[in-house]
């Protein structure tokens, strides 16, 4: 039988944030936790990024061109953000950001398509780089995902799903206990034809996790396999759409294409309590390709073929109820090929954008502690020291082949004050970093053949750092009410900006300032509601080049609101969720000379209802995007705005049987 679920719009924070702890909710920062029950109330569809759709101030999506990465943008970071860079994303202690990717998009994209909702136990979204447990790409913040375990916590089930535009999915979850071993097996197959002409996706996911408790530790090993083949319809110019171009059309009449294979093995050990040692070891075979149409005959074909392995280990010590200290080390080795090649009529030519053999080693040490000075006052401090040892063979411009050695030291400080019963105040000052990209260190020049003369080496480049300042509150003004608010200011060095599809350029120093407000109301078990607003006051280049635009392409306003009802209906239980999501005043530049404009306001309404009786659970979801030609996925170019058009309505129905 399926267990009775108690679903919240958003998970609450720790009941006692003042207690020294390594938990994300104990940080002096803005933190949101998403549970498996939360995810069950969301219309996930084909895009796992939708698990983040209720997080205040966050813009999360897939760019609708196939399995090309998962966007996660917050706090004014849009640099490569349509693919998840600038936020450190970790699953079971394994970093998900891929450095110097050519089969994805630039430096640090995250590819979460190997996951399905049935695999996720919890997600912590941490705003700002205040946690020392996460390293590379921890600039806007970090996301820590924990996978589910088998046994009593997860019921076995089988599900089928049908959706608009040819979407169909079959999934199987097998959960059980065999002596002291808990087993969870998830198999998922998804196929979709897409809203646009020429678009398609064929994806297979397999996940198996074994867990056991021995003494004071929980040990687990998990293996996963992911395969995807897809075609993407590209972007369409807004002026042409307004003049009557079919929104289903394919850019240049030539779909993009790509595929991915990913095999991963992960071992984990964590203590059963607050104290003890923890360890992670992982190995991964990562292969990915993506071809982007440039004209009616040409593609730029990006490809990664990498072998990745690494680990982390450390220990946590508690000192009564006064203090906690965590120290550890981590390392990651990444070897293989990364290239972009010109294709003509879907056949490779002799010309390359770049072609590099990469040997990227990163390793670091971290320490983090909390000390409760007074019952109502807790101090937080941490630091990381990270080192980068790269060897880059530039096959296109051999003279640019080089080694690179660099370091980054990033301290973090914070304070949490329980100013009044029901009112917590926090502040933090923290630094985060992004490692240098291989293309920054060993430049490849313009399109050309392998073995060409020339080349530029930037071996003295420093890792990009941010300095972040946060001030916020978490209040419970009345029974059933929770209010959170924060303001932030971020200064960033050596910004890399996504200026057009597949174009990433250095832009110098940037400054970001903004605030977020989040209100939750739950008068009882039957109903709840939330409202959040994210306001970016400043996201701009401090030293733009002459004639270049200073504003970064991020929405100034992000509104999110929703409500939930749950209760008995006949022999079963009914759950209904409605959500609204709005982004507005997103600047871009077009024309020569460039002129600042704003993208169309984007609005999305989501409604999901679920009914559960006995062993059967049925759900129906509707997504409405009513504004013509408005999209969360768009780029400003000299010729005008390029848009990935989206359907006005999407419908999805699912039937699940528990056993």
TrEMBL record:
Compartment list: Cell outer membrane
Domain of life: Bacteria
Keywords per UniProt: Cell outer membrane, Membrane, Receptor, Signal, TonB box, Transmembrane, Transmembrane beta strand, Transport
One of the Pfam families matching this protein, by short name: Plug
Gene Ontology biological process terms, A to Z: siderophore transmembrane transport
Listed InterPro entries: Beta-barrel_TonB, Beta-barrel_TonB_sf, Plug_dom, Plug_dom_sf, TonB-dep_rcpt-like
Domain TonB-dependent receptor plug span(s) in chain numbering: 27-141
Primary location: membrane
Topological relation to the membrane, as annotated: Multi-pass membrane protein
GO MF assignments: siderophore uptake transmembrane transporter activity
Any Gene Ontology CC annotation: cell outer membrane
PROSITE patterns: TONB_DEPENDENT_REC_3
Family per record: Belongs to the TonB-dependent receptor family.
Protein name per UniProt: Ligand-gated channel
UniProt source species: Pseudoduganella albidiflava
